[in-house]
Write a structure and sequence with these properties.
The chain is an all-beta fold and about 120 residues long. The N and C termini lie far apart (about 40 Å).
Amino acid sequence: QVQLVESGGGLVQAGGSLRLSCATTASAFRLATMAWYRQPPGKQRELVASINFRGTTTYADSVKDRFAISRDNAKNTVYLQMNSLKPEDTAVYYCNLKLGASNEYWGQGTQVTVSS
């Protein structure tokens, strides 16, 4: 059973920074595409950033130049560095792992709240 455990969320003032971490038990982590999603209050879940096994990254337009996704295959961990945070970044952030066509796993989510 693959587990993903997020950490690093919290309350921060606008303009501040947070770093989220997601540790996984997946033995094939180095082959997986990892992603961060978020779900703002009352809204649908949306993709924030992803990183594939080659290290290629993608970002939502709303977070480009502010957020950075990275991975450490030796630690089976993916990170999301969030800078210049805005109140609209307030959401529950979820870690996602995709391996192959049919294997997908989610973390339990971590709350990020940005005060104005």
